[in-house]
Amino acid sequence: MNIAIVGGGTRCKRLIELIESHEFQEIKPKVVAVADVNENAPGFIKAKTKGLFVTQDYNDFFKKKNIDLIIELTGNMDIYNDILSKKKKNVRAIANPTAQLFWEISRLFALQKITEQKFQETQTRYKAIINELIQEDVLVIGYNYRIVDINDSLLAKLGLKREKVIGRFCYEITHHQDSPCSGEHHPCPLIQTLNTEKPSQTTHIHLDKDNKEIYYSISTYPLRENDDVVGAIEISRDITNDINSQKAMMRQEKLASIGRLSAGVAHEINNPLTTILTTAMLIQEEIDPEDPNFKEMETITKEALRCRKIVTSLLDFARQLEPSKKENKINEIIEESVILTKKQAAFKDITLALELKDNIPTVFVDKGQIQQALINLIMNAIEATHEDGEIKVASDYNTENKNIEICISDTGEGISTEDMDRVFDPFFTTKEKGTGLGLAITHGIIEQHNGTIEVESKLGKGTTFKILLPANASTGGNNAGQ
Ligand SMILES: Nc1ncnc2c1ncn2[C@@H]1O[C@H](COP(=O)(O)OP(=O)(O)OP(=O)(O)O)[C@@H](O)[C@H]1O
Ligand SMILES: [Mg+2]
Q1: 153, 162, 402, 422: which is deepest, by most CB within 10 A?
Q2: Of the residues 429, 456, 465, which should be mutated to test ligand 1's pocket, given the most ligand atoms within 8 Å of the CB?
Q3: What is the distance between the alpha carbons of residues 106 and 116, in angstroms, rounded to a whole number?
Q4: Which ligand minimizes its atom distance to the CA of 255?
C-alpha cells in the first residue's frame, strides 16, 4: 500500500519513521510521497533525504499512478474535501481527525507494551530480592492466611516445593495445624499487622521437616493496595543458634557462679565433716555392738559418709581443674570406663554393648577427666534403664569436621521435654539420692576439652548423649588405628 501525505510537519516525520520501524502482518504500507508548501518542514526534509517524491503542491499526487492512500495531516477540511473531489475512485483518503485517532490508538498499544515490560522487570527484581538478596525466610500472606508467595530459603527449610505451598494456609505449612495458631501464648504478628495496619515483631517456635524446634524472630509488614491492607509480608530469621549460644552462655555463667559458691561451702564443710566422721567411728569402737547407741552411731557414720560423697562431688565440680592433657586413644578410655561400670549394669541384667570404630585419630585429653565424664553418663544410663534393657557405647570419627564422636545410648525411661533444658544444671536431679551434679561436671569437663555434649531423648523410649571432641590435629585418620 503506497501512501502519500499532505502536510510535512512533525507528525508526518513520525509517521514515516513509525511505518518504517513496524513489522506489519498483512498490509505492507510504504510512504512514497509528501506534499507541503514549506520545504523546511521536518517531514518534508525526511522524505527528501529518503529519496521519496516531494512536492509543494498536493495536486501533483493526482498525476501519479502508484498512490493507493492519501493521508491529510494539515487539519484543513477544505483541503480534504478538495482531495476527495479530485482523487481517483480506487484511491482512498483519510482526514486528519481519523489519522489522529489511529495515532492515539497506536500510542496506547506502545504504552501497554512498555507497562507489560515494566511489570516483567518489577517481577524479576522482586523475585531477585526475596530469593537472593534477603537471606531471611520470606512469606507473603493474603488477608485469609493463604500463602501468596514464599522464597527459596524457606522452601528448602520446609523441604517443600513452591507449587505445594502457594495457596495453602500459613498455619498448615509452618505449624502443621489445621486452624489459625494465634493465641495468648502464641501471638501471631500477621494478625497484629492486619488489625493495627502497622509492622509487628515476635519470636515463634516452628517445626522443621524432622519436627525439630527452630526459633524464629518474625517481623511482619502490611501490604497495601489502594490504601487498604490486603495482607502482610512476613520476614523471619532463624535465631536457633543465637538462642542456643545464649543458653550455653547462661549455663556457663550459672556453672561458674555456683562453682565459686560451692568451692567455698564445700571446703568449709569438709573439715568439720571429717571430724564428725572420725569421732563417730571412734565412739562406735568403744561401744558394745548390743548397746542401742551403737545403731545410732552407725546412722551418724552412714549419713556423714553420704555428706562427704556430696561434698566430694561439689569439690570436683567446683575445682574445675585445668585438665592435664596427653595424647590418648579414645577407644581405650571408653573400654576402661565400661569395665568400671560393667558390674552395676550386670546387676540389673542390662547389656552394655560396645561399637567402637577402628582408625580413629588420637585425642589430646585428660584421661581421668574423660573417664569420669563417661562413667557419669554410663551410670545415668544404667540408673534410667529397666532390667533387661540395653546400653550402647559407640565411637566414630567424622572426617568432615574432624571430630571424634562418642554416643552413649540407652533404652531407658527417657527425659521429658520440660526437663530437657535442665539436665545439665547443677543440682537438678529426679533421683531420691542424686546430687544432680553428674551431668554438670561432665558438661564442664567436655567444655574444657573444647568439645560439645548434646542430648536427645524420647520419653519411654530412651536417651542418647553425644560427645564431640576435636581429634588430635597432628594425627591423621589412618595412622592412629586403635
Ligand atoms: N540417661 C538418662 N536417662 C534419663 N534421664 C537422665 C539420663 N541422664 C540424666 N538424666 C536425668 O538428668 C538428671 C541429672 O543427672 P545428673 O547425672 O546430673 O544427676 P543425678 O544422676 O540425678 O545425680 P548423681 O549424678 O549425683 O547421681 C537425672 O536426675 C535424670 O533425671
Ligand atoms: Mg548422675
Answers
A1: 153
A2: 429
A3: 15
A4: 1
431 lines ligand 1 (CB under 6 A): yes
Which residue type, as a one-letter code, is found at position 390?
E
| CA 377 to ligand 2 center in whole angstroms | 7
How far is the C-alpha of 378 from the C-alpha of 371, rounded, in Å? 10
Nearest bound ligand to the CA of residue 317: 1
How many Å apart are CA 261 and CA 318, to the nearest integer?
8
Domain count, the chain: 4
348 is a domain residue: yes
List the grid coordinates of 417: 521435654
Higher per-residue pLDDT: 109 or 10: 10
The finding on whether 461 has its CB within 6 A of some atom of ligand 1 is: no
> Residue 444: which H helix or E strand, with range?
helix 438-448
Q: Can you tell me the distance from the alpha carbon of 301 to that of 279, in angstroms, rounded to the nearest whole number? A: 9
Dump pLDDT digits (tens) for 276-328: 999 999 998 999 999 989 999 999 998 898 888 878 877 777 665 677 889 99
Mean pLDDT of the chain: 86
pLDDT digits (tens, 9 = 90+) for 180-214: 777 777 778 877 887 888 898 888 887 776 667 78
Identify whether 222 is part of a domain: yes
CA distance 52 to 234: 63
Taking CA atoms only, the protein residue closest to ligand 1 atom 9 is: 380
- Do 331 and 312 belong together in one domain? no
The secondary structure of residue 61, as a DSSP letter, is G
Same domain, yes or no: 287 and 354: no
Rg (CA), the chain: 44
User: In ligand 1, which atom is closest to the CA atom of 436?
Assistant: 19
- Is ligand 1 within 6 A of the CB of residue 463? yes
Same domain, 97 and 159: no
The answer, yes or no, to whether any atom of ligand 1 lies below 6 A from the CB of 312, is no
Residue 423 Cβ < 6 Å to ligand 1: yes
Nearest-CA residue for ligand 1 atom 26 is 435
Position 120 in a domain: no
The 3 state secondary structure assigned to 107-131 is HHHHHHHHHHHHHHHHHHHHHHHHH
295 CB neighbour count, 10 Å cutoff = 12
Residue 224: give its domain's CATH number: 3.30.450.20
Cell 501533483, located at residue: 60
Residue 41 has pLDDT above 60, yes or no: yes
- The whole-number average pLDDT for the span 443-450 is 89
Q: Give domain status of residue 195, yes or no.
A: yes
How far is it, in rounded angstroms, from Cα 392 to Cα 385? 12
Residue 266 has pLDDT above 70, yes or no: yes
